[in-house]
Structure formats: structure tokens, C-alpha cells
Amino acid sequence: MILIAASQLDIASLNIKQQILNHYPFSETNQSFQQNPTYKAEINNQKITLITLNQESVTAQNLPQAFPEAQLIVFISRHSSQSGKPTLTVHTPGNFADAELGGLPKTVSTCPAVAMKDALKALATQKEQLSLNYEVSYEVTHHGPSLNAPAMFVELGSSEPQWRDTLAAEAVAHAAMSAIQTFNPKPTESAVIGIGGTHYNQKFTRLALEGEAVFGHMIPKYAVANINADMLSQCIERTLEKVSHALLDWKGIKSEDKTGLTSALEKTGLKYMKI
Question: Is the pTM of this model over 0.85?
Fold first, then answer.
């Protein structure tokens, strides 16, 4: 079963949820979750459950306990940034340091790398088909929850005008559903870990959109100082796909962090390439 989670506290989330219900054959069940209706569908042999949380998605740390059969959890969510730039994003949750926004300290979620790539490509396709003036981008691993189940966020941002944009919400709905319909809980593709660069790494985004790499966890420049062999091992182990190597955005890593990073990579035995 694949779980889609929306939030009552999130305008964009409710907007995306409504677009999913408008365009896909979900039926309301006689069950509820947190006193909200639950919807179910079976599409392309995938059993899908859609729920609505009464809490912010980043705090849904106990969700896998409520749905232990979930093979993938997709949070449909707002994306916020001070720039307010119209952006459609996808990322996996987790924390490389303190848990400032949900989740657990120094704990990342299991990353569904192929599903993230599929969602990213679908966002790019929807942007073109719907003539949206939005950027499409990976975000690095950040914020909660920190889940053992494969989890990803597909987001609409970056401020209230975009959160209320019905057409952009439709794009996110289609992208999430596209990734869900092709999801394989036992993927055969390998993944890479991306390290360095900004929170919205355009190099990694371009490589994924051009089919040259499938990214799992992505660690930005600002988090590299927190990365040791244990955290790298966690990123490898908490990727649904087999991790073949790391791609380093070498110019996007602080000089003072490079020696520690390469030492940590060598301790884990993970091969790496500088780009």
C-alpha cells in the first residue's frame, strides 16, 4: 500500500489533495484518520490510501506505526522560502544535525530515490504542459519526520499566492500520482548520494532530469560540516536503492570541510566522483 498524507494546517496541501480527488478515482471509505475522511483507490495495480493529518506533516513522526503496511509515504505539502519564488520541489525528509523542524536529530528517513526522480521529471513535464511560470528543483534532505519507511515530499511553493494556485496544485497532484503509479518497492536501479552546493542544487536537478543520475540523499554545503562516516553510512543504508557512489559538487563545498568529507567517504568505502 502507498500512503498519501495531506495536512489540515497547510493550504497548499489541501489544494493538492483536492486536485488528486478531482482527477483520480478515489472513493471515500467508512474509515477515518484523526477524525478526517480516508480515501482509497487502486490504480495501475497500486493500492493507494489518502489521509489528512490534523498536524503539520513535518511532525508526523508516528505515521508508520499507524500504517505499518505502507511501502511508500508521499507528503503533499507547501514549500516555503523567504524569496517567495514560484517553485515545485521534491525531497526526502530527515535531519543531518538538530531536529529544528520535526523528526529526530541526526536521523534521515529512508529515501525512495527512483520515486523522487520520477516525481521530479513529472513536475518538469507538468510545468511545460500547463505553461507554469515555476522553477522545478530537487531540495536537499531536510526537516522532519525521520521515518524508517520510504518517504518523500512533493511540494508547491514558495508563498501563499502559489499555495492557492489551483493549476500549480494540479501539477503537483499529477507528479505525485505519476511517481506512485510506477513505484517499485524492490527497485533494480542504483542511486547516488549528492554532496555539496546549495539547498536547491541545480546541477543535481539537471543530471536527474537528463537521466544521468538517480539521487538519493542530498547533503548541501551548509550541512557538510556535520557529516561523518556514521552519517554517510546512515544515508547509504537509508536509501531504498543500492547506493553505487557519491557525486560531489566540489566547488560547492567549503575548503575547510573537504578533508573531513573525503576522509569520511574513505572510511565508509563509498566511491565518489567530483563534478
Answer: yes
- Residue 272 contacts residue 265 (beta carbons within 8 Å): yes
Percent of the chain whose predicted confidence (pLDDT) is above 70: 100
> What would the DSSP string read from start to end of 5-68?
EEETT-HHHHHHHHHHHHHS--EEEEEEETTEEEEEEEETTEEEEEEEESS-GGG-TTHHHH-T
Q: Name the nearest CA neighbour of 194 among 214, 211, 209, 210.
A: 214
Q: Are 138 and 120 in contact (CB under 8 A)?
A: yes
Query: Residue type for 245, please?
Result: H
CA separation for the pair 220, 13 (Å, rounded): 26
Cβ atoms within 10 Å, residue 117? 24
The burial class, CB within 10 Å (0-12 / 13-18 / 19+), for 38 is middle
Q: Is 66 within 8 Å of 143 (Cβ atoms)?
A: no
| Peptide bond connecting 64 to the previous residue in cis, omega within 30 degrees of 0 | no
**Low-confidence spans in the chain with pLDDT less than 70:** none
In angstroms, rounded to a whole number, what is the distance separating the alpha carbons of residues 72 and 92?
11
Q: Round to whole Å and give the CA distance between 34 and 11.
A: 18
Q: How high is the pLDDT of residue 82?
A: 84
